[in-house]
Amino acid sequence: MAEELKVLLIEDNQGDAFLIKFYLGESTSPVFNVSHAETVKVALDLLAENRFDMILSDMNLPDSFGVDTIKTILSKYPGNLVVVLTGLTDEAVGLETVRYGAQDFLVKGKFDGKVLLSTVLFAFERFKLHKQLDNVSKQLDEENLRLESIQRLLGICFVEYDIKTNTLYRSETAIQITNTAAPERNMASLEESITWADNPEEITKFVQYALEHGGRGEFNYSSAGKNYRFLYEQVREKFYGVIQPL
């Protein structure tokens, strides 16, 4: 069974609306189920009652004009896929709507059925991909928050060193527990990161030993008048470490 995509078409020009519905109706995979509104008010009412896969919207309507049309729709119903329909003289404005959240725009009179279908389908696939990436990003944020909470509760902190890129990552808790604000970035080169200790020469020797021998081990050091134990393990080309205040 062919996939069905629900489309909200917002267009007050009957000729343009008929042509767009005709073009979409030629598609058999996916099948487009089109609802039509001639004003933003009617469109908002439909959005309140239905879920649509995408919105095709003219910018100049009886109750809304220009970029404000897209702003109104996305401010009330954010997270919707919008493809804008513009006139020949509004091409620059159509580009501006992309900055306000529209996925793409089409200039009336410059597209046929093939161009319309390819534009909306590419926009739909891009939109789905962005949603998936956003979900992954949120999951990673939640995992990072959980890890930071565990570190604070246990009074330990986490560091990770990438041998290939010579980059040391320190968790927020590592910066707080060890009271080492410099360098300010969580990620820095190994050489930059070592400068936060009172005894960088000693730590440099330890790092060189760890890099040469790999495996796992531990090292005691002092910084800002406090003593710490550093436990580490090498996995392939990365070192993972835990810092414990003594």
Write the layout of secondary structure elements.
Layout: E1 4-10, H1 14-25, E2 31-37, H2 40-49, E3 54-58, H3 67-76, E4 82-86, H4 91-99, E5 104-107, H5 113-154, E6 157-162, E7 167-170, H6 172-178, E8 187-189, H7 190-194, H8 200-213, E9 216-223, E10 226-235, E11 238-245
Helix pairs in contact: 1-5
Radius of gyration: 28 Å
Distance between the termini: 65 Å
Q: Could you give the order of strands across the largest sheet?
A: 8-7-6-11-10-9
The class by helix and strand makeup works out as alpha/beta
Structural domains: how many: 2
Q: How do the helices and strands follow one another from N- to C-terminus?
A: EHEHEHEHEHEEHEHHEEE
Q: What does the overall shape look like?
A: elongated
Structure overview:
By secondary structure, the protein is α/β, with parallel strands linked by helices. The protein has two domains: 4-135, Rossmann fold, CATH 3.40.50.2300; 155-245, Beta-Lactamase (2-Layer Sandwich). Helix content is 44%, strand content 27%. It is built from eight helices and eleven strands. The strands form two sheets. A six-stranded antiparallel sheet has the order 8-7-6-11-10-9. Strand 3, helix 3 (67-76) and strand 4 (82-86) form a beta-alpha-beta unit. Helix 1 packs across helix 5. The longest helix has 42 residues, at 113-154. The protein is elongated.
